[in-house]
Queue: 2 jobs
Job 1
Amino acid sequence: MIVQRRAVPAVLAVSALLLTAGCSAGDGGAPDTGRTSAGTAPARSASPSPAEPTPPAKGTVKVVRTVTEGLDTPWGLAPVPDGDLLVSSRDEGTITRIDADSGRRTELGEVAGVEPNGEGGLLGIALSPDYAADHMIYAYLTSASDNRVVRMLYDEKKPAGEQLGAPDTVFKGIPKGVIHNGGRIAFGPDRMLYVGTGETGDRGLAQDKDSLAGKILRLTPEGEPAPGNPFDSPVYSYGHRNVQGLAWDDKQRLFASEFGQDTWDELNAIKPGGNYGWPEAEGKGDDAAYQDPVAQWHTDDASPSGVAFARGSVWMAGLKGRRLWRIPLRGTQASAAPQDFLEGRYGRLRTVVAAGGDKLWLTTSNTDGRGTPKQGDDRILELEVS
């Protein structure tokens, strides 16, 4: 079985298409009421409980402000308890703290061992579920040999640039490629670490349950297969092409975004042991062996990366689509056709993070080699949504 992992000590020291990207002339103004794309279709899924509320079919998005700008290849985004933001740079291999009020930037340091190449580099970041006590930052990175998850002590008392401890490898052996490295990590409501991986362009790996590629993995914070996993391995679901978004709704159900190839991008409701079809299926199908998506999009309209849940909907950032999608939910069904917002206004959109209530953080991704950077790119935006 191709699984390599190393548990770290329990006690740790604590002290490819180019697309011209649009750019807004300014922030704020009247909320964007969006539109529904005729090329986008909700997919059938399990029926929700009759007691579950249904969000309005139509929502709005207001860009409140630009929090900061001038970022280089921002990828992962993680709010810290005081409301500030940590952002990773894919190509620079650094983590930077953003003052959420002033936008002032403080570089924590460079993560050792990052080897940027193509879509690989320093990707997703997440705070330990015990961050208040252990001050640990988890990161998904591309090394010289593989993709892996590491964790580092964040010591705010040290000088800027020296605040990250040496990375401890929590989990390794995830295949890497120039493309399709996945990279999103998130701690779930169960305090387990979920990891989205890509199939690196080698399609057959997605259906191989003994491979870590093209999967969603579920791990303990120490990097062991989480209790209750369906295959007695790190694998939680399989048959994925390139998972780059993970989010839970208010009922603790997991949703994930996925890049399609030429036809359909997907938002999926994730079931333990579920087979999501790639490369045998793309989008909705008639084969009961594969899980149908909650919603699907033509690839020019989405190429999805990060997802977040707020106000009864999943919000999904689109790279090639250069827009933000709202997918209203009732249970694990799309209760109405998805709406798109901000089309072309800020270019490629990478990561969206819920900030409580009606607030989202959103990052652009125009310096990633596939966009056309404008003055101010890349940036973090504060959104108000309904």
Note: Residues 27-385 form a domain with the Neuraminidase fold (CATH 2.120.10.30).
Job 2
Amino acid sequence: MHFAYPARKNSNPPPYLPRSTRWLKIRRRHLKPFAALALAVLGLIWLFSGGSKHKGGRVISGKPAVVVVTVFDGKYDNSPYIKSIRENRSRYAEKHGYGTLLTSASDYDLKGSPASWSKVVAMRHAITKYPDCKYLWYLDQNAFIMNPYLKVEDFVMGSTKLEDTMIKDFPVVPPDSIIKTFANLKGGDVELVLTQDKEGLAAGSFVIRNGEWAKFFLDTWFDPLYRSYNFQKAEAHALEHIVQWHPTILSKLAIVPQRTINAYAGDAHGEQYKDGDIAVLFPHCSGTGDKSCARVSERFSQQWRTSFSKA
């Protein structure tokens, strides 16, 4: 990090000014930083005391309450497996009056970045398409929503629910990150909900409250600087970086138990799915072979349909 050197003193003294004129110049010079500081403080107060609930100077109506976002890789769009995922999202959204953004990674120009970055752009796209939604739930392609009765705004984002489930004063990136989740964060102040698996933060399923903070977070995450770092796990490691080193983001983050929104199926990398969980993900499945996503998901495909038919 480079620090500016102190300015050298000018050996030629300024011309003499009358006392009153000098006083006005000095006062103006000292007032400017105070004015800038005051504006910054007011901006922060606005942002964190309700400004994020406004869109374009008006209050967000919360209709729809939730938008479900999924990005498809486009490789097997006509397969029964992908059609089942699309139907799964649509039926869940229809039941609760939610919106959906079911899009393809090829719809976005990522300027050469890995396709996995498309989830960030898609969330920003969803805010543009549904400017009055209250929450956005990103769920990876290789996942099923299993419990049609659970509503995101209550089960995940309800203030009381968050108070009970968020993991406080805990390493953001386990096991030994020195940066920890806030110990005194209130449920009503949470803007972003994430989970962890055995490898770190898990971005296969996360929820954001719509508003100015959400746009700030997504724009920060997608910053060209982070995309140029060539992180080993692209956007996943970029997320870990900004969450740990940006207090404005960390101060609004709640980490909840993995099975709350991100249970895994037959995977040793995280908590296993149990009946009643809201969703099941297949994060390490492949395109073909015995561990293909279509094969790993088979036992859940009929299960979600049965649950939805009874709901």
Note: The radius of gyration is 24 Å.
